Amino acid sequence: YTLNTLTNTLNTLTNTLNTLTNTLNTLTNTLNTLTNTLNTLTNTLNTLTNTLNTLTNTLNTLTNTLNTLTNTLNTLTNTLNTLTNTLNTLTNTLNTLTNTLTNTLNTLTNTLNTLINTLNTLTNTLNTLANTLN
After folding, report:
1. pLDDT tens digits, residue range 88-131?
2. How far apart are CA 134 and CA 129, in angstroms?
3. I need a surface site. Which of 18, 85, 124, 132 has the fewest CB within 10 A?
4. What's the whole-number average pLDDT of the chain?
5. What is the pTM (predicted TM-score) of this model?
6. Distance between CA 14 and CA 8 in Å, rounded?
7. How many CA atoms lie within 13 A of 98 on its CB side?
8. What is the CA radius of gyration of the chain?
9. Which chain positions lie within coiled-coil regions (predicted)?
10. pLDDT for res 55
């Protein structure tokens, strides 16, 4: 009877040990699954981080390109302003020359008219003298 009881107890302990071993194996498998999931999530996070870094680099490149284009536009605007100022200066110079030439022409015309009037006066005087002598 005692041997049977001891055998039954040993069998019960063995079954309990087997159950605990199975539970430990299940927990180990669960831990491995969780570890694999964590590794997958870590890899996904790394991929997302790399993607974010790539997008950030692309944004920086686009920003630099925009800044370059803005600087180019500013340079072109400054050049256009300089050309406009030069054109305005040339226009003012042309207007001054035109006014000077017009004034000179008017002066010459007035002088010519004065000479013509003087000539007419002399002609009239000569005609008067000729009539008087006749």
Report:
1. 999 999 999 999 999 999 999 999 999 999 999 999 999 999 99
2. 8
3. 132
4. 98
5. 0.66
6. 10
7. 6
8. 57
9. 3-125
10. 99
Give one DSSP letter per residue of 95-123, joined into a string.
HHHHHHHHHHHHHHHHHHHHHHHHHHHHH
DSSP type of residue 125:
H
Cα–Cα distance measured from residue 62 to residue 56, given in angstroms and rounded to the nearest whole number: 10
What would the two tokens of residue 121 be?
Answer: 């006066």
Task: Give the pair of three-digit tokens for residue 40.
Answer: 């997958």
Alpha-carbon distances, residue 19 vs 15, 28, 29, 31, 82 (angstroms): 6, 14, 15, 18, 92
Rounded Cα distance between 46 and 52, Å, is 10
Q: Is the per-residue pLDDT at 56 higher than 80?
A: yes
